[in-house]
Amino acid sequence: MVCFRLAPVPGSGFLLLCLVLGAVSSYALELNLTDSSKATCLYAKWQMNFTIRYETTDMHNKTVTISDLGAATYNGSFCGDDQNGPKIAVQFGSGFSWIVNFTKEASSASTYLVDHISFSYNTNDNTTFPDAKEKGVFTVNYRVALKIPLNEMFRCNSLSTLENSDVVQHYWDVHVQAFVQNGTVSTTEFLCDKDKTITTAVPIIPTTVPSPTKPVVGSYSVVNSNGTCLLATMGLQLNITHDKVASVFNINPNTTNATGSCQPQTALLRLSSSNVKYLDFVFAVKNENRFYLKEVNVTMLLVNGSVYSISNTNLSYWDAPLGSSYMCNKEQTVSVSGAFQINTFDLRVQPFSVTEGKYSTAEECSADSDLNFLIPVAVGVALGFLIIVVFISYMIGRRKSRTGYQSV
Question: What domains, with CATH codes, occur in the chain?
Fold first, then answer.
C-alpha cells in the first residue's frame, strides 16, 4: 500500500509519500511504503532531475532539462518478497518513468545493494520533444551496486550524477532505507563518500543579503571544429533565496571552466567550478534573424552543504540581431525565478556568427543607450545656456553703449 499527500515545505519529515514543492522547479519526493499489516517496509526521500540530449529532424542535437516532476504517481513500488527485492517506481509527465531496484546480498546477511536504476522517456511527447527525429520510448539502465548496511539509513546530501551519451541524471538530498526492520526507520546513518568529505561544522548563514561587491569580469568562449563559435564577457553575481535564507555569490572567472556547444538554432555556454556543478546559458534563434537568451539552468553547492538546482526554459533576455553582439555595461538582472536572479556587469555576448574569434558590432541595451543619449543632451543644454548668457551680456553692453551716445 502507498500513501501520499502534498506538503508545502521540502524535507518536512512526513512518514507519507509526499510531493513537496521546493525552489520553483526542484521537487523533493518522500516515500513511506507499508506492507499488508501497515508497517513501514521501505522509506526514501530524495530530489532528482534529468537532462536529455536528442537529435532533431534537421539533424542537430538539442537538450532538454526535466526538473518539474509535476503530479507523480508510484505504481509498481513494493516492499519485496521471497523472490524479488524492494522497488521504487515513479511515473511523471508524459511517458517518463524512473525505477530503482534493491537486492539483498547472498553472501551477507547484514548488507543490501542499490542494484540498478532505469529511466525511460517518451519522445512522442511533442511538448517536450517537439522536433525529435526518432519517436518512441527510450530507456537507459545503470548498474549501481552500492552496498548499504541492512539496518542503517543511507544518506547522501551531496550531488550524485549518472551519465551516458544521451541522459544525465542528478540526485541529491537522498535518504533511503530499503529494508526497514520491524516497521521502524533507523536513526543511524550510513553516509556516501562525498558527504564524508564535507566538514560537520555548518557555516553561519546570514539571514539578510550582505552588501555585495562587484564581481570580477570574465571572458569566456566556446570552440568547435570551425573555431570560436561563442563569445561572452561578463561579471556574474548569483542571488539565491533558499529555505527563507538569502545569499549572494560572485562567479570567479579565474577558477571557472567554460564549455558548451554551438548549433545553427541553439548555442550553449556552460560554466562550472568547484561549487558550481553547472551554470548554463542557452541561446536560441528567433524569426531567423535575431538571437536571445532562452534558458538558464544551475546546480550548485550552497555554503551549508545542500545542493541547489533550478531551471527556466522560457526566458527572453539579451535580444539582438544575428551577426551582431549584445552589450550592456550597466548592471542588468536576469530573473530566472522568484528565488534565483543573476546580476550581470559589463556584459557582452555573441552566441552566433562569430568571425575570426572577435565580437561583431554591438547592439546596446536600452540602459546604455539612455546614458549615451543623455551625455550629448547635457552638453547641448550647457552650450545653449552659455550662448544665452553671452547673448544677454552682449545686449546689455550694446544698450549701455547706446545710452552713452545719446547723452553726449
Answer: 4-196 (2.40.160.110), 218-364 (2.40.160.110)
